[in-house]
Amino acid sequence: MSDTAVSRTPDGLVIVDKPSGFTSHDVVAKMRGIARTRRVGHAGTLDPMATGVLVLGVEKATKLLGHLALTEKEYLGTIRLGQNTLTDDAEGDIITSTDASAVTREGIDAGVAELSGDIMQVPSKVSAIKIDGKRSYKRAREGEDFEIPARPVTVSSFQVYDVRPAVAEDGTPVVDLVVSVVCSSGTYIRALARDLGAGLGVGGHLTALRRTRVGPYGLDAARTLEQHQEELAVMPIADAAAAAFPRWDVDEKRAGLIMNGVRIDMTAHPRNPVAVYGPDGRLLALVEDQRGKAKSLAVFG
């Protein structure tokens, strides 16, 4: 079959506004059908309950995903103080209810401050973290008694926009907080909700979550699955890399050396990885600086 007989999906990123109730894998499966390619992956999962920005890579852009997954993320959410759940979010059964009507704004602000900056966080037991090679959520479902070690994460911003007294379905006076969080990869917002409630002595869980940004890609670039079904919006791989990584333009000779895996001298850049572009503006590779030499992480030529 000739190349002109098939319209090939371009290499690039697809930014999806994920609907609630879909797993990240559900979205990938749907996108494989929309983009007509098996080469689709995601740059970090988003819980089924959550909505918002999910970054997918198609074709050669799947090589970018592992590096994009390490970027900063931003969320809007609602935390309910006064109830703990099995999953630390609204999808799990309520396991404790405590009157939260005496919680003060000063107490909330102090608790938020404790959970800001560089902190150690214990992920939820129903997360996908592997413990001795087995997913944590699988251990939890099977009723195992186990502990997840705390991990370092960075919460660069944790803001409370609104404090709303409410009454839960079981009659417990609760407090709902509308919050925004900017954090490093690997941070669990439902664990922040759980720990904020624990620190205030009333318990807490996440009732709503919307991811508004992954690295440089925000909701303004996101489209629903239905919109992508009507017209697939692919951010070209060269533009996607330029938005996320420092850019290094090289001449034809250096381009050839990099494409052949030669570690050439590289100029200093503010951070790694660095996106390398040829004289024609084509994305050639992602590299990192190793003692002044360019080590290839992914080659796209």
Automatic annotation (TrEMBL):
<comment type="function">
    <text>Responsible for synthesis of pseudouridine from uracil-55 in the psi GC loop of transfer RNAs.</text>
</comment>
<keyword id="KW-0819">tRNA processing</keyword>
<comment type="similarity">
    <text>Belongs to the pseudouridine synthase TruB family. Type 1 subfamily.</text>
</comment>
<dbReference type="GO" id="GO:1990481">
    <property type="term" value="P:mRNA pseudouridine synthesis"/>
</dbReference>
<feature type="domain" description="tRNA pseudouridylate synthase B C-terminal">
    <location>
        <begin position="190"/>
        <end position="231"/>
    </location>
</feature>
<dbReference type="GO" id="GO:0003723">
    <property type="term" value="F:RNA binding"/>
</dbReference>
<dbReference type="InterPro" id="IPR020103">
    <property type="entry name" value="PsdUridine_synth_cat_dom_sf"/>
</dbReference>
<dbReference type="GO" id="GO:0160148">
    <property type="term" value="F:tRNA pseudouridine(55) synthase activity"/>
</dbReference>
<dbReference type="InterPro" id="IPR015947">
    <property type="entry name" value="PUA-like_sf"/>
</dbReference>
<feature type="active site" description="Nucleophile">
    <location>
        <position position="47"/>
    </location>
</feature>
<dbReference type="Pfam" id="PF16198">
    <property type="entry name" value="TruB_C_2"/>
</dbReference>
<feature type="domain" description="tRNA pseudouridine synthase II TruB subfamily 2 C-terminal">
    <location>
        <begin position="245"/>
        <end position="300"/>
    </location>
</feature>
<dbReference type="InterPro" id="IPR002501">
    <property type="entry name" value="PsdUridine_synth_N"/>
</dbReference>
<dbReference type="GO" id="GO:0031119">
    <property type="term" value="P:tRNA pseudouridine synthesis"/>
</dbReference>
<protein>
    <recommendedName>
        <fullName>tRNA pseudouridine synthase B</fullName>
        <ecNumber>5.4.99.25</ecNumber>
    </recommendedName>
</protein>
<dbReference type="InterPro" id="IPR014780">
    <property type="entry name" value="tRNA_psdUridine_synth_TruB"/>
</dbReference>
<keyword id="KW-0413">Isomerase</keyword>
<dbReference type="InterPro" id="IPR032819">
    <property type="entry name" value="TruB_C"/>
</dbReference>
<dbReference type="Pfam" id="PF01509">
    <property type="entry name" value="TruB_N"/>
</dbReference>
<feature type="domain" description="Pseudouridine synthase II N-terminal">
    <location>
        <begin position="33"/>
        <end position="189"/>
    </location>
</feature>
<dbReference type="Pfam" id="PF09142">
    <property type="entry name" value="TruB_C"/>
</dbReference>
<dbReference type="InterPro" id="IPR036974">
    <property type="entry name" value="PUA_sf"/>
</dbReference>
<dbReference type="InterPro" id="IPR015225">
    <property type="entry name" value="tRNA_psdUridine_synth_fam2_C"/>
</dbReference>
